[in-house]
Write a structure and sequence with these properties.
Layout: H1 2-29, H2 36-39, H3 46-56, H4 62-74, H5 88-123, H6 128-142, H7 145-159, H8 177-210, H9 214-221, H10 226-263, H11 269-279, H12 282-310, H13 313-320
Helix pairs in contact: 1-12, 5-6, 5-8, 5-10, 5-12, 6-8, 7-8, 8-10, 9-10, 10-11, 10-12, 11-12
Length: 321
C-alpha cells in the first residue's frame, strides 16, 4: 500500500508541472496580460509600464518567464501581488485557514444530514419520507446558492435580525465562540444544504444496491438485528461511491466557496480569488490555482486510501496495480 502511495505521489510531480504550465500560458494569453492592472490606470505612463515589465521579467519570452516562475515557486517564493505588493504566500495562508474553517464545518454538517437521510430513504423506499427526501435533494442542488444566500440574508439578517449579514466576526470585539458561530451559521448551513441533497441521493442509490445483496440476506437470516445489518454490513460497502464523490467535491468545495464567501463577505480563499481575478493579479491567481490543483490530487489519493479502509478487498487490487 505504501509503495502505491509513493508511486502516486511521484506521478503527481509531472502532472502539477503540466497544470502550472497550462495555467501560466492562459494567464499570459489573456488580453492585457499580467500588466493589465497598471494599463488601466491613467496615472501610469508608458515608460513606467516598460520599467515594470523589465523589473518583473515580463519582457522575456514566455518559456523563460515560466522557468523563472517555476524555480521561484518551488523554492517558496510565490511572488508579490501586483495590486497590493504583499507576498502571495502571506495573502494565501492568511485566508486559507478561514476557508478550511468554513468548508470543514459545512462538510461535517453535510455528512451528518446526508448519510441518515440517504439510509432512511433506501430502507423506506417510496414512502412519504423518501418522497420528502427526494424533494429536499432536488431543491438542494437545483436552487442557485448565491440566490439562496441573498434570500437568507434578507430573511434572517434584515427582516428577523437574528444573524449577521456577512463577515466572520464582530469588528473590534473580543474573541467569543458564540460570536464566531453566529457569523458561521448562514454560510455553513447554505453550503451544507447545497451538498447534502446531492450526497443523500448517492447514499440512497448505493444502499438500495447493497441491501439486495446475498450477504445482507444471509446476515438477516442469522438473526442479526436490523440496525447491525444496516450499519456494519450494508453502510460500509455503500460508502465507497460516496467516498469517490466526496474526494472529487472537497477541492471543488474549496474553490467553489467563492460564491458563498462573496455573498457573505467571508474573508477566505474564494473571495481572494475573485478579487484577484477582477484586478488580474496574476501572481495571486497562479498561487491559488496551483494550490487547488494540489488539493485535487491529494484528495483523490486520500479517496484511494479510504477505499481500502471501507472495503479491504480493494487492497489486493491496489497491490497488484
Amino acid at each position: 500500500m505504501w509503495t502505491y502511495i509513493v508511486r502516486r505521489l511521484v506521478i503527481t510531480i509531472p502532472l502539477l508541472i503540466a497544470v502550472s504550465f497550462v495555467s501560466f500560458a492562459i494567464m499570459q494569453s489573456v488580453p492585457g496580460g499580467p500588466m493589465a492592472v497598471y494599463r488601466n490606470n491613467p496615472n501610469v505612463r508608458a515608460e513606467d509600464l516598460a520599467r515594470l515589465e523589465k523589473q518583473l521579467g515580463l519582457d522575456k519570452p514566455m518559456s523563460v518567464q515560466y522557468a523563472i516562475w517555476l524555480r521561484n515557486f518551488v523554492t517558496g517564493n510565490w511572488g508579490q501581488s501586483l495590486a497590493s505588493g504583499r507576498q502571495v504566500t502571506e495573502m494565501i495562508f492568511e485566508r486559507l485557514g478561514n476557508t478550511f474553517y468554513l468548508m470543514g464545518t459545512a462538510f461535517v454538517i453535510t455528512l451528518i444530514v446526508a448519510i441518515p437521510i440517504g439510509i432512511q430513504s433506501a430502507i423506506r423506499q417510496y414512502s412519504f419520507f423518501d418522497h420528502l427526501a427526494t424533494l429536499f435533494s432536488f431543491i438542494g442542488f437545483s436552487v442557485p446558492i448565491f440566490w439562496l444566500g441573498l434570500m437568507a440574508i434578507i430573511l434572517f439578517a434584515v427582516k428577523l435580525d437574528w444573524l449577521p449579514a456577512g463577515g466572520m466576526r464582530t469588528i473590534d470585539a473580543p474573541f467569543s465562540i458564540s460570536d464566531r458561530l453566529r457569523y458561521l451559521v448562514l454560510p455553513a448551513s447554505l453550503m451544507a444544504f447545497h451538498s447534502a441533497g446531492q450526497y443523500s441521493r448517492y447514499v440512497r442509490v448505493s444502499m438500495l444496491e447493497v441491501v439486495r445483496q446475498d450477504y445482507i440476506i444471509a446476515a438477516r437470516a442469522k438473526g442479526l438485528i436490523e440496525r447491525m445489518v444496516i450499519i456494519k454490513h450494508a453502510l460500509r460497502n455503500a460508502l465507497i461511491p460516496l467516498i469517490t464523490v466526496v474526494a472529487l467535491d472537497l477541492p471543488a468545495l474549496f474553490s467553489g466557496a467563492l460564491l458563498v464567501e462573496t455573498v457573505f463577505a467571508w474573508p477566505g480563499m474564494g473571495r481572494l480569488f475573485w478579487n484577484s481575478a477582477l484586478r488580474f493579479d496574476y501572481p495571486v491567481l497562479m498561487g491559488t490555482i496551483i494550490l487547488s490543483a494540489v488539493l485535487v490530487i491529494l484528495f483523490n489519493l486520500l479517496a484511494d486510501v479510504l477505499y481500502v479502509v471501507a472495503d479491504p478487498r480493494v487492497r489486493l487490487i491496489r497491490e497488484r496495480g
